[in-house]
Every structure is written in C-alpha cells, then in structure tokens.
Amino acid sequence: MPANCALYISARDLPSELLRLDPTAKLQIDGSEAGWSEARVDLSNVRLEISHMTDAAELDEHLNGFCGYVMHCKGGKMDQPTFSLIQQILRTRHVLGMTIEPSFNERAIDFIRQLRARTNALLFLNSSVLDLEERLLVGPKGSDPNAELPRFESALERKAKSEKAAAELGIRVLPSLPPIAADEEVVMRSPSEIARRALCLWAVAVRGEGLEQEEARAIIDQAQLWDWVTPKEKAFLDQEDPTPHERTQFAWQYECLWVLGWALGVFDDLPPPTQICDVSRLAQAMVDASVESLLAANRPRSPEEILDQTDFIYRAHWAVTDDRVNGRQRASGGLQPGVVLERHRALNWLISYQNQDWDDVSTDT
Fold first, then answer.
1. Is the dihedral of CA 106, 112, 115, 120 positive or negative?
2. Residue 340: which residues within 8 A CB-CB, separation 6 or more?
3. Whole-angstrom Cα distance, residue 287 to residue 199?
4. Across all residues in the chain, what is the average pLDDT?
5. 217: closest CA among 236, 198, 196?
6. 3-class DSSP assignment, residue 48
7. Is the pLDDT of residue 22 over 90?
8. Looking at the DSSP assignment, which residues form a beta bridge with residue 139?
9. How far, in Å, CA of 320 to CA of 318, rounded?
C-alpha cells in the first residue's frame, strides 16, 4: 500500500535541482526550475510522486489549518514550544506532498532524509510532526521533550548576537525565545514599497501632530498614493476632527517612519530604543519628499542588517512586555516601551512577517 508524508520547508527558494540528490534516479518535473508544481522521482524499486503547493492563498489556508491541528494535539494549550512550532509552520514557503509507491524502503527514506537535511524541513508523517532526527515534535501521542525545531545557522548566530548586545545594554534576555526568520527564509519589502509606505506614514504622523486635514491629504495627493494608504489610515485622514487618542496613536508613526528611513538609507543610524526619534531630522528629510527622491542616492540596508535589528527588537519587546506584566516601574535597560512597540511593528513589516499588511502587522513575543 502506498505511503504518504509531507515536508514543510521555510526556505525562500526551492529549485527543482534539489530533487537531484540521487544520481541514479530518474527525475521528471512539471513546470520551470523555480516554479515547478509536480515531480516524479524513480529510484529503481520505489517511486516518489511529489506535489509542490505553490498557490499563496491555498498555502495560507493550509498552514492555518495545520496550526489548528497542532493546537488540537496540544489540547488547546499554548506554551513556548507550541508557539515556536506554530511560528515555524507559518514561515513555511513550500509544502511538498509525497506519495511513495509501493511503500517506504531504505532508498526512499534516504532520499527524504537528504532532502530534509538540505532544506531544514519539518516532516509530517503518521499524523505527527517530526524534527530532523525524526523525534516527535507534536502528534496524537504527545511530544518528545528532546525534539528540536530545525533552524538555519544564520538565525541561531543572529539570536546569540542579539542576546549579547541586549545583555550589554542591561536588557533582560529570555534564552528560550526562538530565533526569527533566517537569511535563507526572509522575503524583504522592496525599496519602492518602503518609500511609498514611508510617505503614507509621514502624512498620518504630521496629521496626528496637528497638521490641517487638507495639508495632510495633499501629501498623499501629490505622491498619488491613495492606493497605498491603508483602511485605518484613510479613515483617519478622512476625519475633520480626530479624537486626541487617535491623533496620539498616529503621531507614534514617526517611530515607524524613522525605521523605514533607516532601511532606505535616508538615516545612517538606528540607535537603541531608549528615547523617541528626532522628529526635526525626520521633518528635514520628509518635507517635499517624493518616492523618487527617497530612492535616489540612498543605500538601502541589506537583508542581514534589517534582520539583525528585527531579532534584537524582538528580544527587547519581550523584556518590555515582561516589565509590564510584572509591574516594574522602570523598563529593562532604559527601553522606551512605545518606541520598542512601533519599531518592532515596522521591522516585522520590512521582513514580511507572516505576509501581513500594515494595519495587521503583529508584534508577537
């Protein structure tokens, strides 16, 4: 009887070349090298039929259902290992469904193990999620406390660097807090997308600070960015007399704007989040700015630089949250909670965290 399993791969790229692990195998692929959809691997006495899930909407729905299954296996209990596993599942870029005929044998098992080792894939087999050593992460029979999530080395090294930097600043660290997305996993926002988002933030921030409605809306009009304004931003800009609370909330977008300006290379520094940003410097950079001027003559930050800051702020945000939950009067390391929150939001958007739109970007800790 044929056997079935699935691989959940978080790596950004999955060329069909990865299926050429066994030089003696016969490989048949449907689709392009990068965008293939079906493959067949013949290993003399066993055949693997591989389906590659590529549709984004289908993948999102599937992963949400998979997370629901994990929570069911855990009896609805969200502990740190479960949270980490769900985060890993939600980073999945590729799902490979496999049918092995006539059944598993040593060659098929060896092929799948090699493919997993190359891609750091989670294995779903017999209604259970297994780590790279085939230990039980979660399933109907519980979990193995020794099981470990597959991690790329770049993510582990970044985590260690962030923890060291936080400790040097007097910020409490939670060692069990997992790494964020690795270099191999992340999909960054494009510079043009960042520039458009920056101008939208500029419009709502200055409106929040007190700029007249017509003048704030003119920023969007002149840049022809109404298609890029989010529903919440549009609702705010449409109001003739926002409440003080609404104004304050949108004025905080200066902090997000500074992060995006840094990502574009408009600003050369992103200091520790212990004080609010320099709004006067922001104004000098943004008054009369356009998408074109923001992109011109600036050096966009590398994905590695942005990931470094994202991993650090993730750990700093945990410290701020821990302070609040435990009623501490002074934030760990002198962190400014509002700055930490908004910086985390902006950085998560830059790395396309869970593919969330701006209004929905979460800042999980």
1. negative
2. 273, 313, 316, 317, 320
3. 10
4. 94
5. 236
6. strand
7. no
8. 142
9. 5
